[in-house]
Amino acid sequence: MEGRNHSMVSEFLFVGLTNSWKLQVLLFVFASVFYMASMMGNSLMIFTMASDTHLHSPMYFLLANLSFIDLGVSCVTCPKMIYDLFRKHKVISFRGCITQMFFIHVIGGVEVVLLIGMAYDRYVAICKPLHYLTIMNAKMCIFILVSACVVGLMHSLVQFVYVVNLPFCGPNILDSFYCDLPRFIRFACIDTNQLELMVSANSGFISVGSFFILAISYIVIIVTVQKHSSSGFSKAMSTLSAHISVVVLFFGPLIFVYTRPSPSTHLDKYLAIFDAVGTPFLNPVFYMLRNQEMKTSMKRICRQLLKYGKISQMFTIIII
After folding, report:
1. Is the dihedral of CA 249, 255, 258, 263 positive or negative?
2. What pLDDT is recorded for position 238?
């Protein structure tokens, strides 16, 4: 953060999403509803998987951590976007901008590794079911989680070691609603072509490479199941459909934003809204509505809570 002392720019101004009052109201309602729904949905998933012993398995351990990361995705950009919708001057400090970008890339890196870990878990469960508990033991789950954190931190630190020391002398108007690294570094007072290439290569390589790894792994799983059992194919697809949907929704906007040399501002904005608000909301929808075990566990927990509520009410009446 010491690079800020060499910069004439102490804050940045966001252009925002739109100047239309009607669209601002619509976006406010849309973002607020989906933000609250994603926070509640992911929190409910974490609570359900932590409370129900039937869900204490490697797959749900990774899924609980994915839900926790989705809470972070929602919190990094969405609250400020909602807060800024009706503000005339949408300001963020230099330090705040750096912090926002840092956590965006940390969370993105962690989620990439978690999705790969979940794909590996499904590969072992479907293609090597007899060795599942031996391979996907507690040590392997912790290894995947620690690897995700290390990769996320390294991915972000490699870029921001150079970014924090860049001199900024103007302009300071970002045509966005959040601090985006590719646009941010273009405002530096020096030639940043090499740095832009490094950022695109770093984020683009991780997103494209990880997407192909996941795509190949799911193709291998589907082909393997289809060869061995036609009846098991539909069951495997019902299990994998939620994973595949989440992967496509997560990597689609990332690849689109970080692999193009000249980004389209308006399209990037709406993709960013979907990535910040829509994806964290859709993840629990896919996993709760398409997973019978999750639905059964949630019903079981609801019955227990109602039972405890009735018991506590009876004790209250007796005491009174």
Report:
1. negative
2. 67
Give the C-alpha distances (Å, rounded to integers) separating 23 from 26, 37, 266, 278, 308. 5, 21, 14, 17, 45
Please give the structure tokens belonging to residue 93: 């400090």
Closest CA to 187 of 101, 86, 66: 101
Q: What is the three-state SS of the chain?
A: CHHHHHCCCCEEEECCCCCCHHHHHHHHHHHHHHHHHHHHHHHHHHHHHHHCHHHCCHHHHHHHHHHHHHHHHHHHHHHHHHHHCCCCCEEEEHHHHHHHHHHHHHHHHHHHHHHHHHHHHHHHHHHCHHHHHHHCCHHHHHHHHHHHHHHHHHHHHHHHHHHCCCCECCCCEECCCCCCHHHHHCCECCCCHHHHHHHHHHHHHHHHHHHHHHHHHHHHHHHHHHHHCCHHHHHHHHHHHHHHHHHHHHHHHHHHHHCCCCCCHHHHHHHHHHHHHHHHHHHHHHHHHCCHHHHHHHHHHHHHHHHHHHHHHHHHHHHC
Mind listing the pLDDT tens digit for each residue in 181-228?
Answer: 878 888 888 877 888 777 777 777 788 888 888 888 888 888 877 776
Report the C-alpha gap between 129 and 108 in whole angstroms. 30
Of 28, 29, 62, 21, nearest to 45 by C-alpha is 62
pTM score of the predicted model: 0.84
Burial class for 1, CB neighbours closer than 10 Å (0-12, 13-18, 19+): exposed
pLDDT for the residue numbered 266: 67
| Pair of tokens at residue 317 | 């009446």
Helix axes 94-127, 231-258, angle to 10 degrees: 160
- The Cα 63–Cα 71 span in angstroms is 13
- Which stretches of the chain drop beneath a pLDDT of 50? 1-7, 315, 318-319
